[in-house]
From TrEMBL, chain A:
InterPro entries: Asp/Orn_carbamoyltranf_P-bd, Asp/Orn_carbamoylTrfase, Asp/Orn_carbamoylTrfase_sf, Asp_carbamoyltransf, Asp_carbamoyltransf_Asp/Orn-bd. It catalyses: carbamoyl phosphate + L-aspartate = N-carbamoyl-L-aspartate + phosphate + H(+). Gene3D superfamilies: Aspartate/ornithine carbamoyltransferase. The gene is pyrB. It comes from Snuella sedimenti. GO terms for molecular function: amino acid binding; aspartate carbamoyltransferase activity. Residues 157-302 form the Aspartate/ornithine carbamoyltransferase Asp/Orn-binding domain. This is Aspartate carbamoyltransferase. Its EC number is 2.1.3.2.
Automatic annotation (TrEMBL), chain B:
The keyword Repeat does not apply. This is Dihydroorotase. It comes from Snuella sedimenti. Pfam families: DHOase. One of its GO terms (biological process) is pyrimidine nucleotide biosynthetic process.
Length: 309, 417
């Protein structure tokens, strides 16, 4: 069996198309496993994984933990909304303390961009980035592409628009890298204040008119506005944001084709999408959640098989 | 000090011996003879070094030496030794200390620490008390103690009226006011240049706009007040253009550029290496080209290493949290030589002295000896073993630099590596 080109999953930009293909094929297998009556395989009985979450998370943490347990890995969890710096201990020391208890792999979410890359250079463990500031969230992008592949057959040649707060979004950035790597066309759409000035240089289209964007695309990935990352109000009110960038059923039905609606969660119902859109057959939001477990199983399994060597 | 320097190639356009290889006889610290060959009849100390070149001693307008308060980063003594080992005979030391150097007694303390060293330390006092940006410090009193300029190190003057008053007040005694070119509100939480690289890394960007807005504001103020303004470490195309225009109007403005801003573009940040975290941030190739052009046409008055030792605890951490700054004295000559020919490199290393009150000392008979000694030939990889500073945060680590510095002879003292 082939293997990943990397020893850590730090970001999509460090992967190649073969890596993504391998992760998807491995996830296909695990998706079948988690739909069996006995949802567990003994693959990683000798592996210990630490989930280190230095930033709040519910679904990503649960998804990783479930993926690890389905693979029979031993799991320890550490959550702290405070960064280690504030406590006076460095990130390297925090992680080395945990690794000295014989941990093989670290899944880390951290508020600072590049934290996983920094860690990978200074500690001896395989690192999975579960989101680092506004940098990358690679497993989210992988599960998003995997879900598009599942619904539309292929990612190559598809038109995907990412709508919302692009400026503060690691999901947007990882999705852009993943989709481009697989040959999809990518557009970002949102208020100009929430679109990085130089994003066009990544080879994506920029659109500020939501209807035009939706008429262009096959898939719309609706992002949440990340109020917690904002140092100033980037738009006057939620109401006004929704008027321009919210998708409701009437808008969806008025398009010239049936597009797929995605959302990485958590949804602010009535803001970026209305309830009837979230619950419509065009939305694959819950498929994304289920695929998240399979994708994370695949990533952990593939990285662990490199540790075992 | 009596010495005989053998076979030194003199690089000094102001000397009749420019580009000539000569022997120099120094008696009581003064150049008494320059000739093709001088006999050592009085048994003076002889200095003979491989491919020896000499020039007027080099000047750096912006260094930090830790003291008082940050001795874990650097001390004045070791900082001055580093400057000497790197060819510098005069350095402007910023008030980047704790407590901040904002009074006559602080300036006196710094001077006492540097007293008797081969390198002349030029203290730069804070512009405002504790560099808080609120009330002017006692500028005149610091000036009388030897402060050569006034600068809240790397802290922009956010209140334009404060800068207006500072320029007016300091003009009474011909004081030099420095204003860091950055508009903080535009910077926000930015930590690197705003560009496609910052987008790719998810790091908040500092737009070039943040610098040019502040430069434009400061030049408007200077035009109104008169006085002497120095803008340390500019980094953008727009700043060069604005200052060029101001100079053509006759405004008394000077500016500097950090050597690393002439060398690196922001794409080196791709690995999140905190050695590249500097302020102003590394910009783009277009900026580098404009800055080099600005040096050529005289818009930019001087280069600086912007030497700022930072201990490892403030660098070996997440990028967002890491301190800004790099050491640069040790790599200044070698880095400039990769970008400019020898004559231009030496010109750049001796520019700007007069602005900070340092007299020029051409290599001529009758002048006191104040020289840097070096061998301009030979490429090498800059590494930890080339670092003399207490802190090792070197942006040029692993870069291929050119030329070796032997040291200095200045202030009646020989300081050779």
């Amino acid at each position: 069996m082939s293997e990943l080109s990397v020893d850590h999953l730090l970001g999509i930009k460090y992967l190649n198309p073969q890596d993504i293909q391998l992760i998807f094929e491995t996830a296909d297998h695990f998706k079948e496993v988690i739909n069996r009556p006995i949802k567990k395989v003994p693959s990683l009985r000798d592996i210990t994984i630490a989930n280190l979450f230095f930033e709040n998370s519910t679904r990503t943490k649960l998804s990783f933990e479930l993926a690890e347990k389905r693979l029979s890995a031993d799991v320890i969890n550490f959550s702290s909304a405070q960064s280690s710096v504030k406590k006076g201990e460095t990130l390297i020391d925090t992680v080395n303390n945990i690794l000295s208890m014989k941990v093989d792999m670290v899944v880390m979410r951290h508020p600072n961009p590049g934290a996983g890359i920094f860690l990978s250079k200074h500690v001896k463990a395989s690192i999975v980035n579960a989101g680092d500031g506004a940098h990358e969230h690679p497993t989210q992008a992988l599960l998003d592409s995997y879900s598009i592949r599942e619904r539309l057959g292929d990612v190559h040649g598809k038109k995907v628009v990412i709508v919302g707060d692009i400026l503060h979004s690691r999901v947007a950035l990882s999705n852009i890298f993943a989709l481009k790597l697989q040959g999809a066309e990518v557009m970002v759409c949102g208020p100009k204040t929430l679109i990085p000035k130089y994003i066009g240089e990544l080879g994506v289209k920029v659109e500020t008119n939501l209807r035009a964007a939706l008429n262009w695309c096959d898939v719309a990935n609706m992002l949440r506005v990340q109020n917690e990352r904002m140092d100033i109000n980037y738009f006057p009110s939620t109401r006004e944001y929704t008027q321009q960038f919210g998708v409701d059923k009437a808008l969806l039905d008025s398009l010239n084709k049936e597009i797929v609606i995605m959302h990485p969660g958590p949804i602010n119902r009535g803001v970026e999408i209305t309830s009837d859109v979230a619950d419509s057959k065009q939305a694959i939001i819950l498929d994304q959640v289920q695929n998240g477990v399979a994708i994370r199983m695949a990533v952990i399994y593939l990285l662990a098989s490199k540790i075992k060597q | 000090m009596n010495i005989l320097i053998k076979s030194a190639t003199i690089i000094d356009p102001s000397s009749e011996f420019h580009n000539k290889t000569q022997d120099l006889l120094i008696e009581d610290g003064v150049i008494s003879k320059i000739a093709n060959s001088i006999e050592n009849t009085k048994d003076y100390q002889e200095i003979q070094l491989d491919n020896l070149h000499i020039s007027q001693g080099w000047f750096d307008s912006s260094v930090c030496f830790g003291e008082p308060g940050f001795e874990e980063r650097e001390t004045i003594e070791n900082g001055l030794n580093t400057a000497a080992a790197s060819g510098f005979t005069a350095v402007g030391m910023n008030a980047n200390s704790y407590p901040v150097i904002d009074s006559n007694s602080n300036i006196t303390f710094v001077n006492s620490k540097a007293n008797g060293h081969a390198v002349k330390l030029l203290p730069i006092g804070a512009l405002t008390y504790a560099s808080k940006g609120e009330d002017l410090a006692e500028l005149y009193d610091m000036n009388t103690a030897g402060a050569v300029a006034f600068y809240d190190y790397k802290k922009p003057i956010t209140n334009p009226n404060l800068l207006k008053i500072a320029l007016q007040y300091a003009s009474n005694f011909d004081g030099l006011v420095c204003s860091f070119p950055q508009e903080n509100k535009i910077v926000g939480h930015g930590v690197m240049n705003e560009n496609v690289t910052s987008t790719t890394l998810g790091l908040k960007g500092i737009p070039a706009l943040a610098e040019s807005m502040q430069v434009a504001r400061d030049l408007f103020l200077l035009e109104y007040t008169g006085g002497k303004l120095h803008i340390p470490t500019i980094s953008t195309v727009e700043s060069v253009a604005l200052i060029k225009e101001a100079k053509s109007k006759g405004l008394d403005v000077s500016c500097s550029v950090a050597i690393h801003n002439l060398y690196f573009t922001d794409d080196v940040l791709n690995g999140f290496n905190t050695h590249y975290k500097v302020l102003p941030p590394l910009r783009t190739q277009k900026d580098i080209e404009a800055l080099i052009e600005g040096l050529k046409d005289g818009t930019i008055d001087m280069v600086t290493s912007d030497h700022n030792p930072i201990d490892i605890e403030h660098k070996k951490i997440e990028f967002d949290h890491a301190a800004y700054g790099t050491i640069g004295l040790e790599s200044a000559f070698g880095a400039l030589q990769t970008k400019f020919d020898l004559d231009k490199t030496i010109e750049l290393l001796t520019l700007g002295k007069a602005r900070f009150g340092v007299k020029s000392s051409p290599i001529k008979i009758g002048n006191p000896l104040n020289i840097a000694l070096f061998n301009p030939v030979g490429a090498y990889t800059f590494s930890k073993k080339h670092i003399n500073s207490k802190s090792h945060n070197a942006i040029f680590e692993n870069e291929t630099l050119k030329g070796k510095v032997y040291g200095i002879i200045a202030n009646g003292k020989i300081s050779l590596n």
